[in-house]
Amino acid sequence: MGAFTDYSPALMTDMYEYTMLDACLKDGTAGRKCVFEVFTRHLPEGRRYGVVAGTGRILDALEHFHLSEEDLKFLSDRKVVSPETVKWLENFRFSGSIKGYREGEMFFPNSPILQVEGTFGECTLLETLILSILNYDSAVASAASRMVSAAKDRPCMDMGGRRTNEWAAVAAARAAVVGGFKGTANLLAAQIYGLKAIGTAAHCFTLVHDDERQAFRSQIAALGENTTLLVDTYNIEEAVKTAVEVAGPQLGGVRIDSGDLASLAQRVRNQLDALGATNTKITVTNDLDEYALAALQTAPVDSYGVGTMLVTGSGAPTCAMVYKLTEREGADGTMVPVAKKSKNKATVPGRKLAFRSYEYNLADCEHIISGSEEALAAYTPDPEWKDLLVDYVDHGTIDPQYQGHDAIVAAHEYRAKALAELPITAQSLMKGEPVIPTETTVL
C-alpha cells in the first residue's frame, strides 16, 4: 500500500492536539475527566434546518485511531511531543464514551450533535478528525436533503466525484444517501458502503465512434436495451430518433446534459411517446442545484444526476461546527461545568440532554437541558418529548448498529421521517430562520 491509501486517522489532526496532550501529561491534567461537545452556533445563512451525517465514518475511523511505530517516530523526530508522551501513545485506544444525534436527524443552532466523554488527553486528540468529518458530511447531507425535497418523488443520484477532492468524493456519496439520494456514480463509495452504483457513457464515447448510431449500437450491445443513452452530443431530436431505431421502444432511458432542460425534456418526452417508447425514462444532468430542481418540477423528468452543487454543500461547504469543552474534573475530583465567555463565541456550560417537542405531530421546539451529571440524572422531561441522543460508544466499545450499509439505509429512512415531522416551511427554498426555535435550560 502506498502512503496515499495507507494512512493513519490518528494523524488526520492538527498538531496542537498533540502539543496540548504533551503539556497536560507533564502537568497532570491529561487524566482529568472531561466532556466535549460538537455544535454549531448558526446554520448557513437562510437555511431552515441541517441534517447530521458522518457519525458512522467517525466510528469507522475510531477503530483505527492508534499510532504505528512510523507515526510515533514521526512525532518524535519532529519533536511534536516528548519521549514520555510517545510512550503514553504507544498503546493508545479511545476508552471514553460518545453519544449524539443519530445520522439523518435534523439539527439546529446549539444542538449538541455529539458529546465526547473521557480523559482530556484522549478526547482532545479526536477534535480535528471529528470536526472534519461532521462539518463536511453534514454540509453535503443538508444540501442533498434540500435537493430531494425540490425533486419531489424523482430520484437524485450523486455524480459529484470529479468536482471535489478524491477522498471527499467517497464521503460525499455516503452523505448524499443519508440526505435522501438513491445512489452514486462513485465505485469506491459503492464498494465500501454497499450503495447503488449508476453510470453508462459520456460524450467522448459518442465522439470516438464514426457516428452516433454506431455509438448507440455499441452501448446497447454491451449493456442491453435497458441502458440510458446520452442524446445531446449533436442534435437531440436526431439522437432520440436514432436511439429508438437502434434499441426499439424498450429503450431504458435517455440522458440530457445541456440546454434548457425543462423545454428539452418536454419535447423529448413527446417525441419518445410518438415513437412508441412510452416507458423510456428521461434523466437530466447539468449543474443542477435545489433551485434548478424546483424549476423542473413540472417537466417530464424521471431522475436527476447532481454534481458540483451537491459536493460543495450548495454554497455552504461546511456547517461551522465546533468542539468545545463543557465540563471537566476539578483538582478535588468533582466535575465542574466550564464555558468560554469570548465575545460572540460564548458557550453553554455542562453536559447536555436534547429533546424535541411536538404539537399535532409537528415539531415545535428543540429543548436543550444543560447541567451536571447529577442534575441531568434527576431531570424528568415531558413524557411527550422525543429524546434525540443515542449512545455510539460506551467506554471504548463501539455500537456496530451505527456502522456499515444498514446504518446508512436506516439514516436515509430516518431523515425522510424526521423532515416530515418538521413544519412544512422547512422545505421552503426561500431564505428564513431555523424552522423551530431552540430553548436552552441550564439546571
UniProtKB/TrEMBL annotation:
CDD domains: NAPRTase_A. Catalyzes the first step in the biosynthesis of NAD from nicotinic acid, the ATP-dependent synthesis of beta-nicotinate D-ribonucleotide from nicotinate and 5-phospho-D-ribose 1-phosphate. It catalyses: 5-phospho-alpha-D-ribose 1-diphosphate + nicotinate + ATP + H2O = nicotinate beta-D-ribonucleotide + ADP + phosphate + diphosphate. Keywords: Glycosyltransferase, Ligase, Phosphoprotein, Pyridine nucleotide biosynthesis, Transferase. Its EC number is 6.3.4.21. The lineage of its organism: Bacteria, Bacillati, Actinomycetota, Actinomycetes, Bifidobacteriales. One of its GO terms (cellular component) is cytosol. Residues 156-327 form the Nicotinate/nicotinamide phosphoribosyltransferase domain. GO terms for molecular function: glycosyltransferase activity; nicotinate phosphoribosyltransferase activity. InterPro entries: Aldolase_TIM, N/Namide_PRibTrfase, NAPRTase_N, Nic_PRibTrfase-Fam, Nic_PRibTrfase_pncB, Nicotinate_pribotase-like_C. Transiently phosphorylated on a His residue during the reaction cycle. Phosphorylation strongly increases the affinity for substrates and increases the rate of nicotinate D-ribonucleotide production. Dephosphorylation regenerates the low-affinity form of the enzyme, leading to product release. This is Nicotinate phosphoribosyltransferase. It comes from Bifidobacterium avesanii. Residues 11-135 form the Nicotinate phosphoribosyltransferase N-terminal domain. It is an enzyme of class 6 (ligase). It holds the Pfam family NAPRTase. The keyword Ligase applies. Gene3D superfamilies: Aldolase class I, nicotinate phosphoribosyltransferase.
